[in-house]
Amino acid sequence: MAKPASDRPLRPATLLVRGGQMRSNIDETSESLYLTSGFVYDNALQAEQTFTGAAQHFQYSRFGNPTVQMLEARLAALEGAEACRATATGMAAVSSAMLSHLKAGDRVVASRALFGSCHWIVSTLLPRYGIQTEFVDGGDLAQWEAAFKRPCQMVLIETPSNPMLELVDLKAVCELAHAAGAVVVVDNVFATPLLQKPMKFGADVVVYSATKHFDGQGRVLGGAVLGSKKWVEEILQPFIRNTGPAISPFNAWVILKGLETLHLRVPAMCRSAAAIAQMLEERAEIGRVCYPYLASHPQYALAKQQMSGGGTLVSFELKGGKEAAFRFLDALRVVDISNNLGDSKSLITHPATTTHSKVSAEERARLGISEGAVRLSVGLEDVEDLVEDIAAALDVVAGNPAPKKKPLARMVVEESVAPAPKKPAARTKAKPARAEPAPAKPAKPAPRKAAPRAKAAEPAAAEAPEPDLFAAPAPRRKRG
Q: Running DSSP on this structure, what letter comes out for residue 309?
């Protein structure tokens, strides 16, 4: 039986574990996975009333699903939003939030520093449908003021930005945007709701890639759009229902379980990121370090005002351009090269040739994405191992020999598949008819029970199964 809801406001850690939970009549402990495409009705009248809205009943998992609904309720509670809709990916969240609201003749203003695919939506996709778009430098309030002198229907902001961690003054821009009649959409994926709540500063809609910190272990894709109940139900939901960017119930369930440890993972990753950022500032191979909670960040004061932590990402620029950046990435032995982020494993990428490779070189230059810039997503490894790995790779850039240690992933596989020591034929494939006398006592005939002993040895051979690629090799057994 479900407990009555608490009459006290719950803290984020509790909401991440218990928010939105619905138990079936079986009273399961863990959230249930409703892996179903559709639902049945008691009778034809219930089906009709469900489709007319007179009865509340799940219809089809593209429209809604109990597991997905639990995820949406948990995220809404954490964000402090009235409603949420989960989507198949983060980009499905961004595109759904924008396309559901906009029409031909509308105008969008966006901060210039956006993820590559978000930049493409604003610069390329929306104009195809007769929607005017304009980019501004997110940190320049004068450019925002100039852009809002004309009517505007929507604003898209990413803060901190991908990849160079630029900030936008949310309170100031939201006030300007609302005066111009715009709905403000904020991509909050880098900060997470634990470090920044855009709605507190005036944002109308918040979007996430749940693939990142929410899952946190690189397993599934997902996204989320949060806003007022009226906007979600009247504007967003019809679009999602009829265009189909629905999340899989399985992915929603995995993300639900990932959220349970978000409050443990993000602070730990932030602490490590801050330590790495400070170390990088001291290295001669680095031209600049971008981390919001470094005093050297040009928007450090703003970061302290609207964020409760510096985040899990550090971006920095190596002197020597692309060649130095590639040498650095290739010399890393713990950190993996990957364009994902928010994972328990530390990941690094070269934005100019990956996440922002489709953005023009001129636009990348305006965004500060140089050929030497890299973006590091800090994971949950021991921070000292990460610092040592990064320092050793920087030594390679400086001209020192590369570390002799093999890449960790390869080392584990190569060492664990070493062939097991060969055993005598009599122990691995004994045949009673061919049993030989023991070599140490040639005068004695082979005992009658030699065959049973050989059979007893067969389980010993079975104790050496196919090698486990991710376990250390078994110790040698002594012969005796």
A: S
